Amino acid sequence: MDKLDSSSDEVVMKLVEMGFEKLVAMEAVKAVGNSCDDAVEYVLKGHHKSGTSKINKALGRRAMPSSFSSGPMRQSSLLDHFKSVDRNSKKGHSFDATVADSQLETLSDPSEELRKSSPPVFFESSCFPDTQLSNGCSEASSTWEKRVNSILRIRFGISSLKSFQREALSTWFAHKDCLVLAATGSGKSLCFQIPALLTGKVVVVISPLISLMHDQCLKLSMHKISACFLGSGQLDNRIEQKAMQGMYQIIYVCPETVVRLIKPLQRLAQTHGIALFAIDEAHCVSKWGHDFRPQYRRLSVLRENFCASKLEFLEYDVPIMALTATATSHVQEDILESLHLSKETKTVLTSFFRPNLQFSVKHSRTKSSASYAKDFQNLIDFYSEKRKATGKKLAVISRESEEQTDSGYHDAENIHETDSDDDEEDPENSLAKPNSSNGKEMSEDYLEDETNISQRVDDWDVACGEFCEMSVLSGKQIPDASGHENSLQEKDFEGPTIIYVPTRKESVNIAKYLYGVGLKAAAYNASLPKKHLRQVHQEFHENKLQVVVATIAFGMGIDKKNVRKIIHYGWPQSLEAYYQEAGRAGRDGELAECVLYANLSRVPTLLPSHRSKEQTEQAYKMLSDCFRYGMNTSQCRAKILVEYFGEDFSSKKCNLCDVCTEGPPEQVNVREEANLLFQVITAFHVENSSEHTSYEDYGLGNSEQKKLSHKPNLLFFISRIREQSQKFMEIDRLWWKGLARIMEAEGYIKEMDNKGRRVEIAYIEPTEKGKKQLDFQEDKPLYVYPEADMLVSLRQRRTYSGFSDWGKGWADPEIRRQRLEAMKRPRERRPRRERSQQRPLKLQKKIPWRSKE
Ligand SMILES: Nc1ncnc2c1ncn2[C@@H]1O[C@H](COP(=O)(O)OP(=O)(O)OP(=O)(O)O)[C@@H](O)[C@H]1O
Ligand SMILES: [Mg+2]
Question: Where is composition skewed (Basic and acidic residues) in this entry (predicted)?
Fold first, then answer.
C-alpha cells in the first residue's frame, strides 16, 4: 500500500480511533483525500459524494438513479412497491436491478438531490392483497420469496431463506408486529435487512452497542447496502441529518437516540417511508433478562408514535420486529408488554437448539497457573501442533496490557491465599449470616464494567466492537508483528478458541499464561487500550489469533464462522449469558465445543453490581439456575439449555454432550440420609416454632449473636448430624449440600429467604410433601443421581474428626468463649503481605479452632 502523507496519516488515525479498521481507513483516505467526514461516508456508504463515479467505477458499480422523493408522501402498504416492481419486471427490468440501483444511490447534496429526485419506484399501490400474503399460501407469497431469494443470492451469496426468516418476513408483509426468537447465529439480522432492500424504505434498527452497530454497518457496506449508525459514538453530526433525510437504507441507532429522534423519524416516515423498526437483542428490554438496559424500556414510544391512528399519512402502523436469541418465557412476555406491541403481534419461535454444539462441564479450581496447566493442556497441544506447521507467534499483548498483566499476576497469588475450600467451613459461615455482603471484598477494579446494569449504552463504545471479517484479506499472506509473513491459512487453522472469564484480571492472566507457553493468545476486556482491542478483533478475524481470553465484552455480535471452541473458565452469571457466549461457536454449522470449567466444590457468587432488591433476587435466581446446570449429571445439557428458554425438548437429546456420551452416574439410594437430614431440619423447626427458643439452647450464641444471625443453616444441620451419628461422620459436606439440593428440587424442603451472593441452599424449612414422605422411618429406597459436587466429594474423601471436634467443642466453656469472641470481631481483611513474606499455601488453610484435617 502506498505511503500516505502526514495529514493523511492523521485522518487515518482518527478513523482508526473511531473504530475503523486501518486498511479500510487508508483505502478511504486514498480514495477521497484528507477529509475525515468524506472518508467515513466513503467507508459506510461504500462510495464518496464528490468522487462517486470514479469510485463506483473503481469498485465496479453502476451509476444509479435517484430513489429519493421530494415532498411529503403517503406511506402506503409495504406491498405497494411490488406493483411497480412487477411492472418493471414485465418491462424487462428485473426487480433486483431496479431496487438495487435505487439503494446504491449516493447524493452529493442531500437537500438539492431530494428536491431533484424523482419518486421512488416503491410508492405505488399494491398488486398483492394483504390477505393473500397474510395467509402465506398465495402465488404472491411465492413471488416475493423468489425476489427475496434473488436478493439473497446477489447481495449476500445465500441461496434461500430459512423458514423462520420467511415467517418473520410474512408477518412484516402483513404489517404486523413480530417477536423473533431464534438461536444464536441463525440469521436474525436478515429478517430486518431484507425489508430495506425489498421496499427501498428505511429500516431503523435499535441496537445496544455502538460497536455492534458499527460492525453491522461495515458488513452491510461490503454487501453494497448503505447504512449508518447514530448515537454519541457517531462523531459526525451530519450523518444524523442525512439519515433523517432518508439517505441511508438502514439506520442503526441506540435507544436513547431513537427516543430523541421521534419527530424527525415521523417526518422521515412521511417523506420516504419507514419499512420497519427492528429492536435487536430485545432481551435487553426485560428486567428479567441477563442484560437489562433501562433505556430499552423506553422503546414503547415507537409503537405509540408510529401508528396509523396517530399519523394520518400512515395507512398501516409501521411494523416493529423485536429479535433475540436468549429470552425465557418470562422475558418474552415482558418484551411484548414493555414495548407495547400490538395484540396481534406474532411470535416467530424457532428452536434454540444448536445441534452442532457439544456441551460439557469440568471440575477445576479455575485459579492459578497449576489449574491453567492442567485445564489448557489439550488446547496447548492442539495449537502447538498447528504452530509447528505455521510458524512464528505474534506479540499480541500490547505494552499497556503487559503492564496490567504484571500486577494481575501479583494479585493472582493473593487469590490463592483466600481461595481455600476451607472458607466455606468457616464457623461464621456455618451459622446464618445476614446479607451483609455488598461485594466490596471483590476488587471491583477488575470486574468488567458490563456487569454494571446502570451503565449508559454509549459507554459500550469499544466494549464489543466486532470488525467485519476481512474477506479481502483472507487467503493473503499477512505480515506478523516481526514483519514476517504469517501463513495461518484455513487448512492449517481449524478455528480459534474464545475463553470467557468473569474478571478482567483473569483475562489478562490467562492470556499471558497461554502466550507464555507459545500460543497466539490475547486478552480482551473493556479496560484495555482501544488500540489493543481493535488489534485483537482484527487478528481474530484474520485467523492470526488462536485464543482470545475475554470478559463478556467480547460477547454479543461476534459473528465469526469458524470459532471451534468456547471455554467458560469460571461460573457465568446466568444461563442466558452462557448460551449467548457459547453461541459464538460453530456458526459455520460444523461441530464445535463449549466447555464450562467451574469449581464444582464451591458455590458461585454474584458479581458485584448496582442492583435493586428485586434485581438482586432475579440475579440470584439466574446464577442459581446456572449452578444447577453445572451440577447436573443426568440430563442432556442441550435439553436443559433449550428448556430453560421454554422450548419443549421432551424426549429428545443432543447425543453430543458429556452426559449423553458418557452417561449419567450410577443411581444411589439416599433414603437414610434424606430421612435423617429432613428430621434434623424438622426437629429444629418444631423446637424453634416457639418464639422463646434461642441459639443458646444449641450452645450456638448469645443475644449479640442473634442480631447477626437468626437461624442455623445447612452446615449447622450437617454438624448436628455428625454429632449425633458416627456413621455419617465420613460424609463430606459437599455431598450433603448436593443432597439438600436434590431434596429441594423434589419439593421435600424449601429454601427460606436466602438471597445473599452465594447461590447455595442455606436456610431451609420442611415442606408438607417432605413431611408426608420423609418424616418417618421409611425403608422404601429413594434412588437419585448423585450431582457433580457429590461426585467430587466422593473423589476427595476426607475424614471429619476435625468437624466433629469442632462441633463438640462448643460444650467446652473456654472454647465457646474464644469462638464467640472471634465471631464478634469484625472480619478484617488481612493486610496484603509482600510477596517475599507470604506463607506457603498449606499453612494458611489452618483455622485456629479446627484441628488439621
Ligand atoms: N438463510 C440463510 N442461509 C444461510 N446462511 C444464513 C442465512 N441467513 C443468515 N445466514 C448467515 O448466518 C450468519 C449469522 O447471522 P446473524 O449474525 O444474523 O445471526 P444472529 O441470529 O443475529 O445471531 P446472534 O444471536 O448471535 O446475534 C451470518 O453470517 C449470515 O450470513
Ligand atoms: Mg444478531
Answer: 408-418
